[in-house]
Amino acid sequence: MALPPDASIVILTGAGISAESGLRTFRDANGLWEDHRVEEVATPEAFRRDPALVHRFYNERRRSLASVQPNAAHRALARLERAWNGPFLLVTQNVDDLHDRAGSTQLLHMHGELLKGRCLGCGAIHPWPGDLDQASRCPACGAGRVRPHIVWFGELPLDMDRIYDAVERCDLFVAIGTSGHVYPAAGLVQAAPPGARTVELNLEPSRVASAFQEARTGRATDLVPALVDELLGG
Fold this sequence. Notes:
Blueprint: E1 9-13, H1 15-19, H2 38-41, H3 44-49, H4 51-64, H5 72-83, E2 88-92, H6 98-102, E3 107-109, E4 112-119, E5 125-127, E6 146-150, H7 160-169, E7 172-176, E8 197-202, E9 214-217, H8 220-232
Helix pairs in contact: 5-8
């Protein structure tokens, strides 16, 4: 795939890329939410109703990160970022830290991050690698309770102005391991300009695969390194 050396690239990743590192995806039959309805653990109302349950759920998710590692797809995207001379942005729907550990830095977590906490009082965001509970207090203001820095259902994703600005200016938009069920992420392809290339890489076609000019099916650990090689000419 030939692009001008200063072309702008935006990559969107979803749960499928992390699944190949061993993290379960919530929309699979054996998915992340199987023991809990979404309404019990992933809404602001759930946190107000039963904060102990919500904290326990995300504490388990946070601990699970220690048992997984970035895979070949994560590493290939970090390699592309390092080698690419034009504008580059990686947007992930995933709340894990696998892209970060692979070395990606031009990275936005639109649905938040498991390893951070957010103060309900002053709004400060802090690294939080350990457990959270009802006694957790903000290191900045000292008084506010801390919630997981996760975008729950019914809340607005993060950095959407910056994301749309990048997509609307891009020359190549690639979606990797996405289901096409969750908006606004599923609709980002429609924001790409008319002259942009749009490519979906997925284990099977997503719900919005028809919106892309090209769809490649297979494992992210195979497809992503191959695409990066094409873009870098090697």
